[in-house]
Write a structure and sequence with these properties.
The chain is an alpha/beta fold. Helix content is 40%, strand content 11%. The model has no long low-confidence stretch (mean pLDDT 92).
C-alpha cells in the first residue's frame, strides 16, 4: 500500500506564482533536513537576495528568523551570516520575533574570507542557506529575470562549494538560481534558455524546494515541531510583523520590486494563510499522530 503524501510537502509544493517550481519539490525533503538539524548542535544560517542596488527582497530573512528561533528553542546554538545589503532585513526580522540578534554582516568584498573565519570560530554542525544566490555555470549571479546581481550579493555560496569536513549543508530555494539548486540543475535546464543562464551549480546535502523560500524554511520548522512534539512555528500575526518589519528596513518584493508588504508577488494574507495551515497540521500531529 502506498504511503499517504505528507501534507507539509503538499503545502510547500504550492506554485501560486506559476513558476513551474512544483516539479522540483521532492517528497520528504523538509523532513530529512529537519531530522539532520535535530541531530546537530550549532547552526549558521545565511540569507539575503538583492535583486538590485539596495533592494534586498522580503523572501529569505523571515524564513531564516523563524527556522533559527525553532532551532534555538531546541537548544541549538544559532548564528546568522549575511552581507551588508541584506543585514538590515535580517536584523529587523529577528527583532520582530524578539530573537537575539546574533548577526554577522559582512562587507561585499570580504564576504567569503570573513565568513570562513566565522564558521571556523563557531564550528557549527550545519550550514543553512535560505533564498541566497548561488553562482551559475559561468561563475556569475543572476536574478530570475536573467539580470546580473553579483554587484549587490557577496559570494557567500563559496562556503557551500567547499564546506569543512563534517559540516552538513542545507539549501532552501524556489527559483533555480539559489544555493542548493545545483542538486536539480539538470532538470531545471530543461525549462529553456533563461533557466540555462541562471541555474545554480551549488549543491548541498539536503535541498528543500518550495513555492516561496520562506515557506520552505517554515516547512522545516514544522517538521522539527513534529519530531520534537513541541510547537515551534510562528503565528500568522507574527508573519505579518516579520514581512512588515523587513519592508520598513528597506526590503522589496523580489518579483514586483515594490516596497510593500508582499513576498514573491503574493499578498501578505496568502503567506499568513500558509502559516496557519502549517500550524494546524503540526498541532494535529503533536496531539495524536506518530512521530515522523
Amino acid at each position: 500500500m502506498m504511503a499517504a503524501a505528507d501534507p507539509v510537502d503538499q503545502l510547500l509544493a504550492l506554485d501560486l506564482a506559476s513558476r513551474g517550481i512544483a516539479g522540483f519539490c521532492r517528497p520528504g525533503s523538509a523532513r530529512a533536513a529537519a531530522r539532520s538539524l535535530a541531530r546537530g548542535k550549532g547552526v549558521i544560517l545565511t540569507t539575503g537576495f538583492a535583486v538590485g542596488p539596495g533592494m534586498a527582497e522580503t523572501d529569505g530573512p523571515p524564513g531564516a528568523a523563524v527556522l533559527g528561533r525553532a532551532l534555538r528553542l531546541l537548544g541549538k546554538s544559532v548564528a546568522y551570516v549575511t552581507d551588508d545589503v541584506a543585514a538590515p532585513l535580517m536584523e529587523a526580522a529577528l527583532k520582530a520575533l524578539g530573537e537575539p540578534v546574533e548577526l554577522v554582516a559582512l562587507p561585499h568584498a570580504e564576504a567569503v574570507d570573513s565568513a570562513r573565519h566565522r564558521v571556523g570560530d563557531i564550528r557549527p554542525s550545519h550550514l543553512v542557506a535560505i533564498e541566497r544566490p548561488g553562482r551559475a555555470a559561468d561563475g556569475r549571479y543572476w536574478n530570475a529575470r536573467g539580470e546580473s546581481v553579483g554587484a549587490w550579493n557577496g559570494p557567500l555560496d563559496g562556503l557551500f562549494l567547499k564546506p569543512p569536513r563534517g559540516l552538513t549543508t542545507i539549501g532552501i530555494g524556489d527559483g533555480g538560481n539559489e544555493i542548493g539548486m545545483g542538486n536539480v540543475r539538470s532538470r531545471f535546464l530543461r525549462q529553456g534558455p533563461l533557466a540555462r543562464k541562471i541555474a545554480s551549480v551549488v549543491r548541498v546535502d539536503h535541498l528543500v524546494v518550495a513555492g516561496v523560500s520562506n515557506w520552505g524554511a517554515y516547512g522545516v520548522a514544522a517538521q522539527l515541531s513534529i519530531l520534537a512534539r513541541q510547537p515551534l512555528l510562528h503565528t500568522a500575526e507574527e508573519e505579518r510583523k516579520l514581512v512588515t518589519a523587513c519592508v520598513q528596513a528597506g526590503g522589496v518584493d523580489g518579483i514586483t520590486r515594490r516596497r510593500v508588504p508582499t513576498v514573491d508577488g503574493l499578498p501578505l494574507e496568502t503567506h499568513m494563510a500558509v502559516v496557519e495551515l502549517l500550524r494546524t497540521l503540526v498541532e494535529g500531529r503533536i496531539r495524536g499522530g506518530p512521530r515522523s
